[in-house]
Design brief:
- There is one protein chain.
- The protein has helices spanning 11-22, 55-60, 72-84, 107-110, 126-142, 160-170, 202-215, 249-258, 276-279, 310-326, and strands at 2-6, 29-33, 42-45, 48-51, 65-68, 88-91, 103-104, 120-122, 144-152, 221-225, 235-243, 262-264, 285-292, 299-306.
- By secondary structure, the protein is α/β, with parallel strands linked by helices.
- The protein folds into two domains: 2-123 and 313-326, NAD(P)-binding Rossmann-like Domain (Rossmann fold, 3-Layer(aba) Sandwich), CATH 3.40.50; 127-308, Dihydrodipicolinate Reductase, domain 2 (2-Layer Sandwich), CATH 3.30.360.
- The strands form three sheets. The protein has a six-stranded parallel beta sheet with strand order 2-1-5-6-8-7, with helices on both faces.
- Strand 3 and strand 4 (48-51) form a beta hairpin.
- Helix 1 packs across helix 10.
- Adenosine-2'-5'-diphosphate is lined by residues 6-11, 13, 34-35, 37-38, 55, 70-71, 74, 159-160.
Length: 330
């Protein structure tokens, strides 16, 4: 299969190459794509070198599938051109996520919605993906009424510039380029993406709207506070979930353990709980600190951690490609 990775020189694009190789996706030819600036640069993939091309050159090479992670502008401009040439696009930007004509997919949750008509498929926001994977088995069993989520998000979600800012600050280098309006080392920034008129940030609204779309249930109420912390390796989330029906904690643990893509790490006696350090480089979503909210009926607290560049981005994109392949759609 001819696979184009658009944004191959970026953080997520690089992770896509790692995941394609690690999961043995049947790549017969890789087409690394980036901006004009990177044209001709060599990219290593499975021991072979491939030259970076521009998006227009990539269309002419007719890949079977194109994995996009080159920002919303690039997706808006080029995804329709790839699709018009018969190339299936899986897009990691927010450009198409809420378009009612496009599917927004987390394979473990709603992989069944994919059909031959889908030529541009959207990959959800990183924080949303790890949350819905953990919510899905509980919604099926107890029906979720409302979710209150607070996030603790890794700087890798912002890109290379943000990782550089954190590392420069740690090394005492003050005049480097800045990805954030404030220092991130030894700090916490309660703003991810731009503010909306309602006082929420765009990231918070993504978590709310995308959750309803992926779960296929607009009755689930979600409220979110998204926060950047000086961490590399993954996003963490505190979830407070109110259900229609009561639950037994042992059954909750069993349902989460049985969910594909989830690993339960929950052993307080031995200080075992999910942390970004442990999730780093892994494809799964880790769930722990599972306990009853004793202040309200039918309500659960839990802690959810995943590598935002993996399950939150690259891994989910490649799992969508795997699902399309399994259905014979690419
Ligand atoms: P380039 O390295 O040539 O700028 P990150 O979000 O980690 O900064 O990565 C962004 C990715 O998107 C990079 O691979 C970048 O390529 C790519 N990119 C940015 N603008 C374009 C564009 N107009 N066409 C193709 N790729 C682009």
């Amino acid at each position: 299969m001819k696979v184009a990775v658009v944004g191959a020189t970026g953080l997520v694009g690089t992770e896509m190459l790692t995941v394609l190789a690690a999961r043995n996706f049947p790549v017969s030819e890789l087409i690394p794509v980036a901006s004009e600036r990177s044209k001709g640069k060599e990219i290593d993939f499975k021991g072979k070198k491939y030259k970076v091309v521009t998006p227009s050159e990539a269309i002419a090479l007719k890949p079977d599938v194109a994995l996009f992670s080159a920002g919303g502008g690039t997706s808006l401009e080029y995804a329709p051109l790839f699709a018009a040439a018969g190339i299936t696009v899986i897009d990691n930007s927010s450009a198409w996520r809420m378009d009612p004509t496009k599917k927004l997919v987390v394979p473990e949750v709603n992989g069944h919605v994919l059909t031959a008509e889908d030529k541009i498929i959207a990959n959800p926001n990183c924080s949303t993906i790890q949350m819905v994977v953990a919510l899905k088995p509980l919604h099926d069993k107890y029906k979720i009424k409302r979710v209150v989520v607070s996030t603790y998000q890794s700087v890798t979600g912002t890109g290379v510039k943000a990782v550089d800012q954190l590392m420069n600050e740690r090394a005492g280098i003050k005049d480097g380029e800045k990805a954030y309006a404030y220092e991130i080392d030894l700090n916490v920034i309660p703003q991810i993406d731009v503010f909306q008129e309602n006082g929420y940030t765009k990231e918070e609204m993504k978590m709310i709207l995308e959750t309803n779309k992926i779960m296929g249930d607009d009755s689930i109420k979600v409220t979110a506070t998204t926060v950047r912390i000086p961490v590399i390796g993954g996003h963490s989330e505190s979830l407070n979930i109110e259900f229609e029906h009561d639950f037994d904690l042992a059954d909750v643990r069993a349902a989460l353990s049985a969910q594909s893509g989830v690993i339960v790490v929950d052993d307080p006696a031995n200080l075992q709980y999910p942390m970004p350090k442990d999730a780093h480089g892994k494809d799964e979503v880790f769930v722990g600190r599972i306990r009853r909210d004793e202040s309200q009926a039918n309500t659960l607290n839990m802690w959810v951690v995943a590598d935002n560049l993996r399950k939150g981005a690259a891994t989910n994109t490649i799992q969508i490609a795997e699902a399309l392949k399994e259905k014979g759609l690419i």
